[in-house]
Amino acid sequence: MLIENVKEIPYITAAIPFKEFQSIVRGKRSGQQAVLVRGLHTDAVEKDRAMADRLDFEEGFFDITELKGILLGAELAGRLGVGYGDEVTLFSISGILAAEDDEYGLDTYTVTGIFRTGYYEYDLSWAFININNNSFLANESDLKLGIKLSNRFYDNQVLTRVIKKLEPINEFENVKLSSWRDYNRSFFGALRTEKLFMFILVGLIFIVVGLNIFQAQRRAVLQRREEIGLLRAIGGPKNAVRFVFVCDGAIIGFTGAALGLAAGLGVASNIQQFFTIIENIVNFFIGIINSIAGFFGLGWTDDFAIFSPAVFYLKEIPSRVIPLEVLVIFMFGFLSALAAAWFASRKIVTIQPAEVLRYE
């Protein structure tokens, strides 16, 4: 009933109940690892298509119909040395602490699927089992509800509406609500700071460009004093003559911003191919250097990689274009050139036709 009420709230695309506990998992042959084990219903991926899209199964599929079935992350399975159909042993941390002298807190599961999400922490430290499993989850009284939104930035609005939905229900008086902003707050803060400084850096670049355009337009005004004086002498208004130079600056700004925008979107849309070309060029020169150094018994054999798999946990380089930010940067570049041309053309107002034409 609660799930159905929650799903009626706008922006909510899925509401999945789950339980979870901390555990240590040990492989049949070698290795052990601390994991977060989450209990889900067997139809979880059908109700939450976003999760289904994120789970890329290398072996098996999302199968937790058996109470003793378990899904492991790819890095976790590799660490434990297990594959599809192998058995692993779970140690409930709370169970071991509660009863150290017996077998309570231990249970064996069969691997029914190995998934990869593309996030190292999840692939190394997450596992899924059936929520109806009583070995560990029976002692977990806190049933949680995972809510997915169509737009994550509506989380505060949704939280307010969920609270209003739960207020009339007595059994949910002490319920705790939290959003993605409450998790990894320091990480998101670091990203926000990094993005802010990137915008400041872009702003400084545009200021330098604007100053260059200002100096170029000012020099153009001085070089065309005679033409300006002639236009003023035959009745050209000051603002009309000034508008010519402002249009010149606007054309420069629009052309430069448009070309930069096209180049940036081209690189962002083909970022993988772009870095591949750079790596191939660098590796070509490295190969030449190695060939020359080989005569002296020197050189190295490692290929250059911008995002080496040994350091970065990436199958491909992610790239996402945010239209609003693209528009802001484009307008900043265009307006900086326009403002530079406007200020540079102020010199036209002080030019007197008689004074200029006196020496002609």
The residue-averaged pLDDT reads 81
* Count of domains: 2
Along the chain, the helix and strand elements come as: HEEHHEEHEHEHEEHHHHHHHH
Tertiary shape: elongated
Strand content is 15-25%
Query: Runs with pLDDT <50, length 5+?
Result: 96-102
Strand order of the largest sheet: 1-2-7-4-6-5
Span from first to last CA? Answer: 92 Å
The helix tally amounts to 14
Q: Give the radius of gyration.
A: 32 Å
The percent of residues in helical segments reads 40-55%
In this structure, how is the largest beta sheet organized? 6 strands, mixed, barrel
Structural class: alpha+beta
How many β strands by DSSP?
A: 8
Task: Sum up the structure in keywords.
single chain; 360 residues; alpha+beta; 2 domains; six-stranded mixed β-barrel; 14 helices
What do you see in this structure?
With 360 residues, the chain is an alpha+beta fold. It folds into 2 domains: 2-183, no CATH class; 186-357, no CATH class. The protein contains 14 helices and 8 strands. The protein has a 6-stranded mixed barrel with strand order 1-2-7-4-6-5. A hairpin with a 4-residue loop joins strand 1 (12-27) and strand 2 (32-40). The longest helix is centred in the middle third of the chain and has 39 residues, at 185-223. The termini are far apart. Mean pLDDT is 81; it is low at 96-102.
